[in-house]
Amino acid sequence: MTIVDLLERNAKEFGDEIALVEINPEQKETRRTTWRDFELVEPSRHRSYYRREISWNVFNEKANRFANALKARGVGRGHKVAILLMNCIEWLPIYFGVLKTGAIVVPLNFRYTSDEIKYCVNLSESDILVFGPEFTGRVEEIADDISKNRLLIYVGPACPSFADDYGEMAAECSSSFDTVPLSEDDDAAIYFSSGTTGFPKAILHAHRSLIHSARCEQAHHGQTHDDIFLCIPPLYHTGAKMHWFGSLISGSRGVILKGTGAETILRAASDEHCTIVWLLVPWAQDILGALDRGELKLSDYHLDQWRLMHIGAQPVPQSLIKRWLEYFPNHQYDTNYGLSESIGPGSVHLGVENIHKVGAIGKAGYGWETRICDDDGNDVKQGEVGELCLKGPGVMKCYYNDPKATAETLRGEWLRTGDMAMEDEDGFIFLVDRKKDVIISGGENLYPVQIEDYLSGFKKIKDVAVIGLPDSRLGEIAAAIIELNPGVTCTEEEINEFCRELPRYKRPRKIIFADVPRNPTGKIEKPKLRKMYGGDALVAAQNRS
């Protein structure tokens, strides 16, 4: 079975039920459709924002039309179709249309520059690039280079002259499609690493990875047909999509929200009766901050149906969840760990029954195995720090066109994650830090995540990142980049006083008050911080040694 089979099953069993909703609070609702393929629902007297919805039948038909359009242009097994779209209701039908042909789907980060788009399209050897209006300028810059051997397809109104119109292509095609027979061993998708430790690598996954992520998500969070999932993070990333696969396998509704503001999230959860919401740490912090300041009141929303809040993509401060449960005492909570090389979240998860272990990422997820190893691949003792390794049906096949990187990361069936971790006496795994982010100061190993977790307990701090900066005497020192809550003031002395309970060698030796940059999946962009504040000089010196 593949996820394509799940879509076709849902169209048969739940055809007229709503599959997807798109909400854009920045755009006012109107009955006029932006282009021919999707119709807007009737405006609501309670709603002033732009909202669209499609049923499972329409979802499947849209995927079939696009599959037929691709097939007519010779696309099939072995071909690759890149998708460069902001979150929208067209995203997933296009994704499934590619898979139905037997081709490989290649989602691209919407923050990529023109050069990065060209790099990733070339590295993945994509035959087609599907892009939306937000990227017209970037694609136009490289159109002459990338269109020589590939087709450009535009999704939206006012198609540019250098691309083919998705709406016209789909309108000309049948809504039925004889899906290419697929097995779990067939190649399915190329995802790109987030680039937090360097330039993105192309990660090749089989259909087995995708279907397992759906099974894993439902096993962890118990999605039923009655659940409604609020999807906020970008669909190009494995995190958002693999959590939505829980809705796919249960045939339940998904709500795609374009916006991350605190009021926007609570309003969408309220209006759409969402039962499951996956948040990134900054969004949860924004909600708590708005509630603390009285800018939002829970009494203004209908949230009794909201049963599960879970977080992934980064370590989660214990203090954040403690504060969250003060406002939402009836919520189940889960932390999900994963990476694109292991098809996103779920390879390790806390479990809703283990809230007393907040701070840990949990234990091996459904169908997964874990080890914590030293540099030679030997298991470390319980309580010692080593590299987290994963084994399971969702491990990537390889880094596409990069055998050297593949050999460094895959050791037999085991995936070396690059994350340093330790296991406690109860078998729960705690992330310590990225292997490449470990700071060696005066011979001591400092793990930035531990320092960040401690500092996040200071109420004036909204976000924090700790990096290593070069030091002539110690080699490296820990520097804390601190982003304060809106409207508060804080001094370096206050931070140093708060850190007195930390062992002396773990205390940050440099305090920088500034914004903490994060990528769309919520991960701190530490290479950018090192470049801004001087840490790259240290990295270069280490590479030369």
Which terms summarize this structure?
5-stranded parallel beta sheet; globular; alpha/beta; 16 helices; 27 strands; 30% helix; 9-stranded mixed beta sheet; 545 residues; GMP Synthetase, Chain A, domain 3; disordered C terminus; Rossmann fold
Structure description:
This protein is α/β, with parallel strands linked by helices and 545 residues long. Among the domains are: 3-218, ANL, N-terminal domain (Rossmann fold); 438-544, 2-Layer Sandwich (GMP Synthetase, Chain A, domain 3). It is built from 16 helices and 27 strands. The strands form 6 sheets. The protein has a 9-stranded mixed β-sheet, sandwiched between helices. α4 packs across α5 (136-146) and α7 crosses α8 (238-250). The longest helix has 17 residues, at 56-72. The radius of gyration is 23 Å and the shape is globular. Residues 30-46 and 537-545 have low confidence and may be disordered.
Principal-axis shape equals globular
Structural class: alpha/beta
Query: How does CATH name the architecture of the domain at 3-218?
Result: 3-Layer(aba) Sandwich
Briefly, what CATH class of the domain at 3-218?
Answer: Alpha Beta
CATH superfamily of the domain at 3-218: ANL, N-terminal domain
Give the DSSP E fraction (strand runs of 2 or more residues).
25-35%
Q: Helical residue percent? A: 25-40%
Radius of gyration: 23 Å
Mean pLDDT: 87
Number of helices: 16
Q: Runs with pLDDT <50, length 5+?
A: 30-46, 537-545
How many strands in all?
Answer: 27
User: Order of strands in the sheet with the most strands?
Assistant: 2-1-11-10-12-13-14-15-16
N-to-C CA distance: 50 Å
Largest sheet: 9 strands, mixed
Under CATH, the topology of the domain at 3-218 can be stated as Rossmann fold
